[in-house]
Queue: 2 jobs
Job 1
Amino acid sequence: MSAATPLAPPAPIRVRNPRTGEFDYEFTPPSAAALGEIAGRLRAAQPAWRDAGIEHRIEVLSRWKAALERHKADIVGALATDTARRLIAFGEFGSTLGAIDRWCREAPQLLREPEGTSGAVPSIRWRNQYVPYPLVGVISPWNFPLVLSFIDAIPALLAGCAVLVKPSEVTPRFVTPLKRAIEEVPELARVLAVEPGAGETGAALIPLVDVVCFTGSVKTGRIVAEACARAFIPAFLELGGKDPVIVTASADVERAAETVLRASVLATGQACQSLERVYVHESIYTDFVARLSEKARAVGITWPDANRGEIGPFIWGRQAEVVQAQIADAVAKGARVLAGGEVEDHGGKWLRPTVLVDVTHEMDVMTEETFGPVMPVMKYRDVDEAVRLANFGVYGLSAAVIAGSLEEGEAIARRLDAGGVSLNDGALTGVMHECEKHSFKLSGMGGSRMGSAGLTRFLRRKALLMQTGAPAAIRQFDEALLN
Ligand code: ADP
């Protein structure tokens, strides 16, 4: 949807239920004109929000937190339908409330403007003014619809920006109860809007905002980055991963197998930071594979009983086809399936935890993002080989090392081309937020969303340079002074 697109009324988007596979929900995305009006309204309200100060913004977000609590049952219920997960829906809700608390605690300190004196010219004093981007656009994916809509929006709001969020068209149900909670806090409703839509709504949003936070695939991330370049605005991109885990000879095999299983198959593997490649030292390989396979076979799916089992269906049905095709490609090239391996179609599509061995880097399952509960396992001979294998490929989101000691693990972690490495665990970047991290290689671009930069990247720095002495006079630059 470009500026040249005629303003036809947008068609309703039908949404499948991930559990039944049936279309059972629909919504109408905003037209380009309506989105433009929303952006204009947010932009007009932002200066007052910025100037009201951080204590006011904290007070408003605290009231929003209370409103979210009042609507918890409806938000979590809708999110559980969007994602076909109940426990994780509660987790997303709790994590979003936790993010409000954490950023409200940290923001006053992060917004304190530094000042100092010039080393070169001591009569010049300086002060930094922090100038928030007026309007931040957030484009979020379907795998963690609530968390990934607000992981960037909350610090941006506290920084003094207005925010326009476009959640994924695959998981829009949570937005209606969420909007009610926003509307109950009028000061917030003036500077925060949430409008689900498909790719064209995302594309229409980009020219309307001053910075884009995007979480999604590399393919779409590239399109978004190109559109941002044309609009001459920054793009903060959090894209896919193909996270490796290295299990060393000294690791506790039982614990390693349990950890790899959890960090690979949790949320049906539909997390960017899921482990997707397993490299195990040859001395423990046979034992590890046996334990991993046994544990994988013991995991239950949430079918037929939605209230039991650890593995839900694929949220986006077509992802099941992608994963099944990767397994077929691997098997055609010589891999063996030791557990799982077959997508089960019960309307929605489930895949039990899948263990693959005899895999190589010629197989898609070792190079392409899987986004499913699949654990391809390869053995290695020495640490150099493990590091080389783990650093293979185009992604550099995160990684893990499981070793007999943290010291041994850290020595390996320091050699990995990834923005975050979990030691003696996996996928820890999904649960802790204090430590800054970048995305390496094709996994992303732009400032860290973790740690202090998660807020400060929304502030442009203006230098206020104050002459306290006599300004230099032009005659001080007369060439004759050298004579
Ligand atoms: P996934 O959600 O599977 O990671 P995408 O990367 O395609 O898939 O989508 C992430 C988000 O980007 C979604 O909100 C989607 O609607 C949006 N999107 C898709 N195409 C575009 C586009 N051309 N411009 C902006 N946003 C887009």
Note: Residues 130 and 461 are 5 Å apart (CA to CA).
Job 2
Amino acid sequence: MTDFFAGIPQIKYEGPDSTSEFAFRYYNPDEIVMGKRMDKHLRFATAYWHSFAWPGGDPFGGQTFERPWFGDTMDLALIKADVAFEMFALLGQPYFCFHDADVRPEGKNFAENTANLERITDYFAQKMEQTGTKLLWGTANLFSNCRFMAGAATNPDPDVFAYSAATVKTCIDATHKLQGENYVLWGGREGYETLLNTDLARERQQAGRFLCKAVDYAHRIGFKGPLLIEPKPQEPTKHQYDYDVATVYGFLKDFGLENEVKVNIEQGHAILAGHSFEHEIATAAALGIFGSIDMNRNDYQSGWDTDQFPNNTPEVTMAYYEILKAGGLTTGGTNFDAKLRRQSLDPADLILAHVGGMDICARGLKAAAAMLEDGTLEDRRQERYAGWDESGAQEMLETASFEDIEARVREEDINPHPKSGAQERLENIVNRFC
Ligand code: XUL
Ligand code: CO
């Protein structure tokens, strides 16, 4: 046991009237929501990188956090792991996620990196066994080290492609060893700054071949979980190739991977792409590639990836509404890819940020479930499309040519009258629930 969280009690559900900071007011893992336990709906995960590896820097200043495990040695990496698992236990957090670079010291070459990763993930395996915490997903950090500054799979240098492929292999191995339920690929620097030095078509091919090899390897070792691409439109590069869900779908189709790979959708990235979170979720669900979510918001004014914990119930409600309609989270989960503000220095800040985020998600989930159970919204939506259920409409869609349709419009003197979309009435209904 470390003393990092000394004095902080186990966080328990106390109900909406609780005035304790160190308690859940809405997240009650045992509560049944639409026939399923709340914890099984939400499948919360902590992001190792923001909570334990991020020093508090921003573009104008460096480290603000003093953490006893900061430093690049194996001993410190083990202390970091101890603290991380203590936090998961205090929160009752069922899952965590990590990149290789968050958890192991950087070695002098690939072989040393891999040995370090194996050692620390063996330690994780013991901790997971002791605490029951599970791995939602693992991933490779192919963006922080300067070797990746011009991309990983899309790099103009084939040696970087090789180094990246070998690294992803070791990270899939580590995820598989820890029975991770998904494997994520966020294209950190898979994009470009200027076309003046970039062969866009070639880079896209490289990314496609890389992903095919990752899928092939995952199959061959019997990794069960889906591979997930995390779309993001820009940052760090000006033009990221995995712009948004629709772009990723086009890319997957191009390489025949649309039934192999799904998406991990991050709220902040959706906002950066000019979409709402629920738009991205609904798009993925409609295309059959919805996988998991990163539940961290961006600031609407800053316009960059601020990775804040969620604190807006109506927004979160609409996300879970689309998730529930899509059949819920299956292998996916709700990962807090969120970091503290850099002035939030105390261990208690780290715990309470998660408590707040978990409570907001629980409120959103309950509101979304209540909206679905009430059924008014879905009834109104269906009524809006009722004309399409009539046989003539379906026949037109399936078999009629433009000439047939023109003939029918003339014959029946079809003369449509606009109907209200009733948006404000629908918004009023939503506001009854959250
Ligand atoms: C970056 C981001 C990553 C991915 C995993 O914006 O969201 O942390 O979630 O690499
Ligand atoms: Co993310």
Note: The first helix runs from residue 38 to 42.
